[in-house]
């Protein structure tokens, strides 16, 4: 379900035990892989369960699937969660390395090829059609229907402490949403990965569209 919009019941929805079976007020959410999407989904589904909204009983083991929700009204608000493009790319690569998820890269199978480097992979991704890239490395501008004209209020993960409480109120969450809920690649890991001027140049090329659209500064070596 990542990179695709889905509906969430609002906190001001009609009681679910109402006998009139009217559609429930909702809002649209779209999450992007490597932007805390798994943690956000877990928080969202837990919120719905605590509100007594009937969702799939096995949501904890199928966290990446959209739970069965009751009839929802057409949403009046839409939100898309994004992350600094260079840090998101670093997080994607580090997870691929750590978990041997090489199938997420273009032209690779389940095993790592000999002498495949991050720089080599970057060059390959730059010359690959974006739609053919796995969503974990695909630029965010090519997700959530943006190229088709779908509009969202953008929520930057780095600014979660400024919008998390508002979103929690909107969906009726009892568990607060804070940065402490998420684990990110460390500064030293990112610095190790972006270790040469050439790699930084390639990162700038690959992330340029996202940086421009979502108003992020290009990655700078600290």
């Amino acid at each position: 379900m990542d990179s695709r919009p889905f509906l969430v019941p609002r906190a001001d929805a009609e009681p679910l035990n109402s006998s009139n079976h009217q559609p429930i007020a909702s809002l649209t959410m779209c999450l992007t892989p490597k932007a805390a999407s798994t943690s956000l989904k877990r928080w969202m589904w837990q919120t719905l369960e605590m509100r007594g909204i009937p969702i799939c009983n096995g949501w904890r083991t199928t966290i990446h699937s959209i739970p069965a929700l009751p009839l929802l009204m057409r949403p009046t608000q839409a939100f898309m969660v994004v992350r600094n493009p260079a840090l998101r790319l670093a997080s994607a690569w580090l997870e691929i390395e750590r978990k041997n998820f090489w199938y997420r890269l273009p032209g690779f199978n389940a095993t790592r090829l000999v002498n495949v480097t991050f720089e080599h992979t970057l060059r390959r991704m730059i010359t690959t059609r974006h739609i053919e890239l796995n969503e974990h490395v695909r630029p965010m501008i090519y997700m959530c229907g943006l190229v088709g004209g779908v509009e969202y209020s953008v929520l930057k993960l780095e600014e979660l402490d400024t919008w998390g409480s508002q979103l929690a109120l909107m969906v009726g969450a009892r568990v607060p949403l804070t940065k402490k809920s998420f684990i990110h690649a460390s500064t030293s890991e990112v610095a190790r990965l972006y270790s040469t001027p050439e790699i930084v140049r390639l990162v700038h090329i690959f992330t340029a569209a996202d940086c421009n659209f979502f108003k992020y500064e290009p990655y700078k070596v600290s």
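Residues 197-214 form the longest helix (18 residues). DSSP finds six helices and four strands in the chain.
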